[in-house]
Design a protein that fits this description.
Number of domains: 3
CATH architecture of the largest domain: 3-Layer(aba) Sandwich
Shape: elongated
Number of helices: 24
Helix content: 25-40%
CATH topology of the largest domain: Rossmann fold
């Protein structure tokens, strides 16, 4: 019987603690790094102490234990350019363990300060916006409205509690546990796709507590299955989280959260693994060098055994999000090692009470670090030399885009020749033909993929054909994308992993556009955290660079009651509520087409607005493309405005009977075929609007919005939607209108399993039920507004 744990391409395991690591690094280098770590640890202590004007905030313990990892990695093991924090060919460092932001800021400020003291030529004339300076630490965990005098004087940057790309050298927004690991997978993938075999390395920092979310296991499996070899995970393993000092098994006792160690976790997922003493610089540097020398096509994890809060005075889980009281004796005691090593003394608190006085004390404390750097010229010289070496080495690597790499810019620069106003001939759907919204969505994405030379990386939760997303990758190498064996495919295998898949595809949105498809009921909920964090990251990226947001596409297929045979577990009407109107305007755009022929104009209009997230909601059943002329409907291109009118009416007409707002394919097909013409036959004059995209409509000027939907319609209209009532209330503005509205839960319960038509009838959403409700509304409207 075969071994169920056998892996045909297993990762390797190396315990660096058993190797001869002493000869790897010169003793002088080790001495420099040891002293830099003392300096760094003091920085972390001070940052926590003064955060939020002396209230104390941050995560000192994990930041301290990660210090040696970051110092060795960034000074000895990566290639970056201090003059270009976002240089595309540079190695990337992602703090997936986002609560170590305090440490990330400290180490970058350390580099800048020591390079400044060494008079590093690379810093001369460099714009402060591209630097993370010692004085920028004044605004740790403060926003731009924190206008204390010294922060204003030095134009200090706002440094959030978790990193985001508004800050130099921060590649991705992290914070929600596990999302950073997922995004790192996508970032490594997009660099491989753009640069090929000479791709930059992607390093991510995590910890065993941050590894407990299921999305981390999803990301690990995706990376190994795709042979994403340029990805290295650095695990800050001290076996402590917020509530536990034994996250993983230890000393013969089971773990509180996990029953394997980080080394076992990554080996199980097929990664190469190195295990080291995380307090030994020679071991750390050796492991990081060995990771770069691997050539078996698999990602690598380095597990560093560290002590959380080492030397701080508070260790283990208690140092996670807490520290010494403000300017307490314990705080000053924890700085004694730094003071002794550098021959300085941190200023003591006297009577500082006001925020201005505390800021002055903070500034003077930071100047102690400047004094320390200036007293030891050999240490700044080591840092400056390494920064120059890293810069020069990056240039010598000659990392250039591979021949034939995708060009996403063709979608936006006009060279692709696409416009929402004109549907390409091969995407025009003839009346009477039958197709699905999901297939037409994929066909539109296929066109964009062809125009951009394969910029779209597509994946689904084991539903490539069911969601039709495989069609979007049809013109490229078939089979799943694999960095080693099938790099020209545009279809990534993620398995049933909506959570990890969305996270990975947000990371892929540097040179590619990530596309994820699944049942809307699962994709919206499971992908929401990564999508929201992606929006936060794109906000910072845009602020720092002036660039547009980079888009990830979520194809919420099999949405609504058309998925009836699967029952309430799959036929979800709630999913749009997670995205529609739920982000700052412009960050996320939702598409809710009713007919397949709307999808080209909607998708192109949405993408050209450059949102961070484009979320389309498309149904499963095949639909007959209706003859719009026969039903008196505008052309499909009208959907690009977001809201358009099926019918308009004069409110002064004696036969005027109010306004109806429609949203969703299932109810709209029923309405058009069983209600719309009945209204016409009755001689009633009604406004009937279809909501194809709330956000595309809201991005219009106020004048354009009112020209499409007059204000009075909002105060009187009823709604009929496949989705929940909250997605309608921005249009259905009156209690009167809501009283007559039909929505996913009008019946007061979840639907049973049956054919779509039967489910619609059960839930009171079929054509006859709609007709009766519209008649009831029209009569009540006439009574309320017209009869004197």
């Amino acid at each position: 019987m075969s071994n169920p744990l056998a892996n045909p391409k297993p990762g390797t395991y190396t315990d660096v603690r058993e190797l001869d690591y002493f000869s790897v690094v010169p003793l002088t280098t080790v001495g420099f790094l040891v002293k830099l770590f003392e300096y760094y640890r003091a920085q972390c202590t001070v940052l926590y102490n003064f955060a939020l004007s002396g209230e104390g905030s941050g995560h000192p313990g994990g930041s301290i234990s990660a210090g040696r990892i970051m110092l060795a990695l960034l000074l000895e093991s990566t290639s970056f350019d201090i003059t270009q924090p976002r240089r595309p060919d540079a190695d990337r460092f992602i703090q997936a363990e986002g609560h170590t932001a305090l440490g990330g800021y400290a180490v970058r400020a350390l580099f800048d300060e020591f390079a400044r003291v060494d008079q590093c030529s690379l810093l001369q004339g460099l714009d402060d916006a591209l630097r993370l300076r010692l004085v920028d630490l004044l605004r740790f965990r403060h926003n731009s409205e924190h206008n204390l005098p010294l922060s204003v004087l030095h134009n200090s940057k706002s440094l959030g509690g978790h990193p985001d790309p508004s800050i130099p050298f921060v590649d991705l927004a992290t914070g929600a546990s596990g999302v950073g690991e997922c995004a790192a997978v996508g970032r490594a993938l997009t660099l491989l796709d753009h640069f090929g075999r000479n791709a930059p390395w992607v390093h991510f920092l995590t910890g065993e507590g941050s590894m407990t979310p299921g999305r981390v296991a999803e990301a690990a499996a995706i990376a190994a299955s795709g042979h994403i070899w340029n990805l290295v995970g650095h695990v800050n393993f001290n076996n402590c989280s917020i509530n536990s000092d034994r996250v993983c098994p230890a000393d013969g006792q089971p773990g509180d959260y996990m029953q394997c160690t980080p080394a076992g976790f990554y080996l199980m997922h097929g990664w190469n693994v190195y295990e080291v003493d995380g307090t030994s610089f020679p071991q750390i540097i050796m492991a990081q060098r060995l990771a770069r020398q691997q050539n078996n096509g698999l990602p690598t994890a380095i597990v560093y055994h560290t002590i959380k809060g080492e030397g701080y005075g508070i260790e283990g889980r208690k140092s996670h999000g807490a520290g010494h009281p403000f300017c307490s004796e314990a705080y000053y005691h924890s700085l004694a090692g730094f003071e002794a090593a550098f021959g300085v003394q941190v200023p003591r608190r006297v009577n500082e009470e006001s925020p201005v006085e505390i800021e002055k004390l903070y500034f003077n404390t930071l100047m102690t670090f400047r004094q320390a750097a200036e007293m030891f010229t050999d240490l700044p010289h080591y840092v400056g030399e390494r920064i120059v070496k890293s810069h020069d080495n990056l240039g010598s690597l000659n990392r250039t885009p591979r021949k034939g790499c995708p060009q996403l810019g063709r979608l936006y620069d006009g060279s692709g020749g696409i416009s929402p106003e004109e549907i390409p001939a091969d995407l025009v759907l003839q009346p009477g033909t039958k197709t699905t919204l999901r297939l037409q969505q994929a066909r539109v994405l296929r066109l964009i993929n062809k125009i951009t030379g394969g910029a779209l990386i597509c994946c689904s939760a084991d539903l490539d054909e069911s969601t039709s997303i495989i069609e979007a990758a049809r013109d490229f190498a078939m089979g799943f994308w694999d960095a080693a064996e099938n790099p020209y495919s545009r279809l990534l295998a993620i398995g049933i992993r909506e959570d990890g898949g969305v996270g990975a595809m947000t990371g892929a949105c540097e040179f590619n556009m990530g596309v994820v498809a699944s049942y809307g009921g699962f994709l919206s909920a499971m992908g929401h955290t990564a999508a929201r964090l992606h929006c936060d990251g794109e906000q910072g990226y845009s602020l720092a660079t002036g660039s547009h947001y980079r888009t990830v596409v979520l194809v919420n297929a099999h949405t609504g009651y058309g998925t009836g045979p699967d029952g309430a577990s799959h036929a979800d009407g709630q999913c749009t509520q997670l995205f529609e109107g739920n982000f700052p305007l412009g960050f996320a755009i939702t598409l809710t087409p009713w007919s397949p022929d709307e999808l080209y104009s909607l998708t192109v209009a949405g993408l050209l607005k450059r949102p961070a997230v484009l979320a389309s909601f498309v149904t499963r059943p095949a639909e007959v493309v209706l003859d719009r002329v026969q039903y008196g409907l505008p052309p499909a291109t009208a959907a690009a405005k977001g809201v358009y009118a099926f019918r308009t009416a004069d409110p002064t007409d004696p036969q005027y009977r109010g306004t109806i707002f429609l949203q969703g394919s299932a109810v709209t097909y029923e309405f058009i075929q069983h209600v719309l013409l009945k209204i016409d036959e009755a001689g009633w004059k009604m406004n009937v609007f279809y909501i194809a995209s709330r956000e595309l409509y809201e991005l219009l000027s106020a004048e354009e919005q009112r020209a499409i939907v007059p204000d009075y319609c909002l105060a009187e209209g009823m709604g009929i939607t496949d989705f929940t009532m909250p997605t309608m209330e921005w249009m259905v503005g009156s209690r009167f209108g809501r009283e007559y509205s039909l929505h996913a839960f009008s019946a007061g319960y979840f639907p049973g399993s049956d054919a779509a038509s039967a489910v619609l009838k059960e839930m009171g959403m079929d054509g006859l039920s709609q007709l009766l409700k519209v008649q009831e509304y029209a009569e009540a409207f006439h009574q309320k507004f017209h009869i004197k």
